Structure prediction request, 255 residues.
Amino acid sequence: MSVLPPVRRDRVIPQLPQSFRKEAALHTENDFSNKVKTACQEQRTGTVGFKISKVIVVGDLAVGKTCLINRFCKDAFDKNYKATIGVDFEMERFEVLGVPFSLQLWDTAGQERFKCIASTYYRGAQVVIITFALNDIASLGHARQWLEDALKENDPTGVQLFLVGTKKDLSTAAQYSRIEQDALKFAKEICAEYWAVSSLTGENVKEFFFRVAALAFETNVLAELEKSTSRQIGDVVSEYRNGSMLKKTHHPHKV
Prediction:
């Protein structure tokens, strides 16, 4: 039986990373919920075991999806552009509140001819990252269609959405200000968390993925806690229905 090596020290998340903009954040609190922290401290079996969340990254051709993933996973930036054919994926391991957790990062093709191939890999996502380039207003306009395509393959109520502006280093101050206003408006409309990053310089990249990992982890644990509570209630109901609980509590009077 193979044993995974320890999580890298720079992938440990002891507290909730903060959002980029409070006005467009999925989680407005400054820390993990008390339920999650308690569950992790108690190391409840089945609730906080090894977990994986699937993350899909979508967006127009050449907005920098692959560069974003490579900057975080490999701390590398390749200036020689190569279009993704179909899909690629990376597995990134974390430790959140002392618990092992992984993100499965799916890098999908932005080319129209590969859309059908890529869309088959959208299914089962817990997180959807919609990317656009901060120096290309048209790519933000196309973000809505990318979102719709991703949600066709998933339960809209079961995914967390992030709207990410890439190529922050290539956007002038005036251009950035204009496009960010539109991006923030769109993020609020679709209930997504907004971020602006640069894969070239690395600005906000680590912070962004740590935020994704932390929120995905919290959602995962809360869902498991809810299931656990439902199972416990279900067990009690079943015992009452089959009479075993009544047998345990019934004490006949002595004569």
Remarks:
- Helices lie at 34-42, 65-74, 115-119, 137-141, 143-152, 173-190, 205-242, 244-249.
- Strands lie at 12-13, 51-59, 87-96, 99-108, 127-133, 160-166, 193-196.
- The longest helix spans residues 205-242.
- The two ends are 61 Å apart (CA to CA).
